[in-house]
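Pair request: fold both.
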Amino acid sequence: MNQIKSNPVKTILVIITGLLVVYLFAKLDVLLNIILALGIIGVFSPYLSKKVEFLWFKIAYFLSLIIPNIILGLVFYFFLFPIALLSRISSKDPLFLKNSSNSIYKEVNKSFKKDSFKNTW
């Protein structure tokens, strides 16, 4: 498995920047305390910086297991499902998926020669 070249100080800087943006919209004073604590950790303690980065990557991994499923579910229920309902309501043969014959194989009456199998592509 490949190791990610990481820089804990840059990771903490990115976290702080993200929290500042959230603070600008949410105006939660608790975020300022967290930002200050992370800034002090990033400047003075390389050991704690690595621990914060490790925790941040674990949270990102956990979210990568959940978020794609949520997005795919939203796409299905808000995009594909309504299209399928509209198609079923508006036409007798929805999406032209009904097969009127008993088999999907077609009968072909063709004689094959030996040369037909030499260059199949």
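--- second member of the pair ---
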Amino acid sequence: MNRRDLLAAAATTALLTRVPAFARTSEDQALRAALDGLGDAAPEAKLDRLKGFSPESLSRSAALDLVTVRSGLRIDAELARRFAFGKMGRSPYSVSFMSGAWREAGATAERIDADTVAIDAEAAAGVVLPADHLERTITAIRKAELAAMGEVATALSRQVSALEALRPHAGDTPGVGRLRDGDAYFALLLERHSGEHVDPAAAHERFVDMGRRLHARADTLLRRQGLTQGPVGTRIAALFREERWLYSDDDAGRDRAVADMNRWLDRARSRVLALFGPVPAPCLDVSARRMSAADETAKRQGYRVVGGPSLSGIYFVDLAEIRRRPSWSLQGVVHHELLPGHMIQFPIEQMADPHRLRLEYTPAFPEGWAIYAEQLAGDDGAFGGDPMAFLGHTHWLLFRIGRAIIDTGVHFKRWSTQQALKTLREVQGEPAYFAPFATDIDRTCLEPGIRAAEALNWLRLSDMSPTSSSKATSPALRHFHRAVLADGRKRLETIDAELKRKPGQLS
């Protein structure tokens, strides 16, 4: 490194190891107490309670808490004024087959009845589950009623009756575009989740264009494997079943898969300094491991343990159905779940100790960062010389962009669930291991905007990154990563503003 690189590395280290929580200033502590005390007040009232705080008097992490929460609350205030229904900023429906007090262990009759009141209020505002989801919700709650007793069973019966009365009002269109001012509602959700103003039409077109470009890349890679006939999605699905790429369905096969992942991880670890400069030790003390036998038997999804000063970071990979995970599909998982993905971002964020409300108003950032990190690894040559691993990486990006396309498709373009399913099959070919097409569509219908926002975070970070105009391991790129990661997650509008400041203003 030259002197300029060394100075940049020192600045990076300082920013990525901020003042610990126990050293917060009195003003920081006052803000945290105020944020903790906001409770269930209306968004406007919450904003009023934060008027006395100024970012200039706070530490960097606390200032980000304040700025982020204020931005989110302004959107919530608009949602509360115009769209006072459902789960604020999450879903237009208080109850579905995937949500509601009826699903909670130990739910009381009072909580279930409160949900039933919300169902009636939503219906009065024209918000009713689409027909298919309504029927599935009724069936699920009836089943819960049969297993319940006493007042809880009676409350569930009342809820079923309320839902059954809505059948004449349930249409077939699953998106929020069918609601009064539904396009504006969806745009507000996109802004809340992504962290900046979003034009849903432009976002949809960008997703579709990215899907086309990824398809063209996949087509080239498939042709190199001799797969030239049929749609890209069909050829990808066929490749998932080719025996030569599959691990054996036994301990030896699972051990080999994990060993392969850790070999790729070692290579990724060796590139961290070039891509980021020095990072906190927990970012590098990470590994992939098998789940316990009990977890594998239960088919638990993959999960991570974020490292700390005395704790190694671990990604426990789901290999229960290992024959559905060809070897070429796993290197992308390493770069997303471990390095330079989640296991770079989460330890740095954990040290910053962001308030839980900052997490609430930046929900798409972690996934957006991890997808960006997958792409970063590819740009840095991680898949060089291995076209099958590069195809696996491309398929993971197709999975991410496919989710985004159906999100805007269903909620802004008024697609049916059948059209969404057709699109996913065309885009991906094979569903992600942990995300069957039908499940992904259900979640997208019931939680508008979040999948699109994750893709927007990925694409907007790529827009802001200097990789297109400089070497992949340049000081400019390390400076960019320092600004994005320092002090934990941020809204896109905050990142954009920070990057436009003079370098000296960042700290």
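Observation on the second member. Residues 200-224 form the longest helix (25 residues).
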